[in-house]
């Protein structure tokens, strides 16, 4: 198998073969590496553009052919720079989408974990027992309120007469 077909078929990474694809961390790392590489190429092209512009200025009216060649190279470098800008935007968008997907996956896993914990906590609870307990609590609160009212009313001795 040729190196090119291995590259496009994903034959490079043995870690991703067994699981059916790279992990989110692996993919993020590769995207970041690609971003760094393209950023370096961007810087290189910017310096080349400046250099060609300087060459064009230097030759100016003295050597129009050399000045035009420098401007053509500058234009070619600018075109490459615009392509790299577009590629970087695409990679950045993909990286952000992957990060968000990974975050959503982790949140979902943790929510499932919390749901299992809640099931375990509620496992020993019976709604009928809870309802009975709440009724008992309400009854006891009513009794406590009646006792409190009875104690707080003034006892009037001898003020009321039965005729």
Automatic annotation (TrEMBL):
Pfam families: Snf7 (PF03357). It is a peripheral membrane protein. Residues 1-26 are annotated as: Disordered. GO terms for cellular component: cytoplasmic side of plasma membrane; cytosol; ESCRT III complex; late endosome membrane; multivesicular body. Its main location: cytoplasm. It is found in: Cytoplasm, Cytosol; Late endosome membrane. InterPro entries: Snf7_fam. It comes from the Eukaryota. Signal peptide: none annotated. Residues 9-21 have a biased composition (Gly residues). Keywords: Coiled coil, Cytoplasm, Endosome, Membrane, Protein transport, Transport. The keyword Metal-binding does not apply. One of its GO terms (biological process) is protein transport. Belongs to the SNF7 family. This is CHM4C protein. The lineage of its organism: Eukaryota, Metazoa, Chordata, Craniata, Vertebrata. The gene is Chmp4c.
């Amino acid at each position: 198998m040729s190196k090119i077909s291995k590259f496009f078929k994903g034959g490079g990474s043995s870690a991703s073969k067994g699981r059916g694809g790279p992990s989110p961390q692996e993919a993020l790392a590769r995207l970041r590496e690609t971003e760094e590489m393209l950023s370096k190429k961007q810087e290189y092209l910017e310096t080349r553009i400046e250099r060609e512009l300087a060459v064009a200025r230097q030759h100016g009216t003295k050597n129009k052919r050399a000045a035009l060649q420098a401007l053509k190279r500058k234009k070619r470098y600018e075109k490459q720079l615009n392509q790299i800008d577009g590629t970087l935007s695409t990679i950045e968008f993909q990286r952000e989408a992957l990060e968000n997907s990974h975050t959503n996956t982790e949140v979902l896993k943790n929510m499932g974990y919390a749901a299992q914990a809640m099931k375990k906590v509620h496992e020993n609870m019976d709604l009928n027992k809870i309802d009975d307990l709440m009724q008992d609590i309400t009854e006891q609160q009513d009794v406590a309120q009646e006792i409190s009212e009875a104690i707080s009313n003034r006892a009037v001795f001898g003020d009321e007469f039965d005729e």
